[in-house]
Structure formats: C-alpha cells, structure tokens
C-alpha cells in the first residue's frame, strides 16, 4: 500500500493523477500547507524538506 502525503495543490494533484492512472492502491494523508502542517515534527519524519506531495 502506498501512502500519499498531499494537499490540494497542482503538484499534489499530479501525484494523485499518476496513482489513479496506474490503478495502484494508496491511502491519502492530508497535509494542510496553508496551516503549516508541513512543519509538524510527525510530517518531517517522512518528508525532511517539508514538501508535499510525497508518495
Ligand atoms: N518539485 C516538487 C515540488 C514540491 C513543492 O514545492 N511542494 C509545495 C506545494 S506544491 C510545498 O510542499 N510547499 C510547502 C513548503 O514549501 O513549505 C515536487 O513536486 O515534488
């Protein structure tokens, strides 16, 4: 199972479109970058550069 950390940005949509087109199972984790959630310690563990999308 792929975990996709993402938000409703064009880059986030690119990752979702790719996974949908490939037909791969994945679960989505919303990271609201407008609220600064990309800087939370739990997210930095999986994305040290605080960027989404991250599959
Ligand atoms: N080329 C990168 C761009 C990633 C990127 O710039 N993500 C932005 C949102 S589209 C982001 O996470 N911004 C939050 C921040 O920089 O704090 C990718 O697609 O992986």
Spatial strand sequence of the major β-sheet = 1-2
Q: Looking at the chains present, what oligomeric state does this protein adopt? A: single chain
Morphology: globular
* Helical content band: 25-40%
Amino- and carboxy-terminal Cα gap = 10 Å
Number of helices: 2
Q: Which structural class is indicated by helix and strand composition?
A: alpha+beta
Query: What small molecules are bound in this structure?
Result: glutathione
Round the Cα radius of gyration to an integer and report it: 11 Å
Q: Strand-and-helix sequence, N→C?
A: EHEH
Residue-averaged pLDDT, rounded?
Answer: 96
Q: Strand share of the residues? A: 15-25%
Q: Name the poorly predicted regions.
A: none
Q: Strand tally, please? A: 2
Largest sheet: 2 strands, parallel
Architecture overview:
The protein is α+β, with helices and mostly antiparallel strands and 55 residues long. It is built from 2 helices and 2 strands; from the N terminus they run E-H-E-H. It has helices at residues 10-22, 41-46, and strands spanning 2-6, 26-30. Helix 1 (10-22) links the parallel strand 1 and strand 2. The mean pLDDT is 96. The protein binds glutathione (GSH). The site of glutathione has 7 residues, from loops.
Task: Identify the notable features of this structure and list them briefly.
2 strands; alpha+beta; 55 residues; two-stranded parallel ribbon; 35% helix; binds glutathione; 2 helices
List the helices and strands and how they pair.
Layout: E1 2-6, H1 10-22, E2 26-30, H2 41-46
Parallel strand pairs: 1-2
The structure holds glutathione.
Residues 9, 11, 33, 38, 50-52 line the site of glutathione.
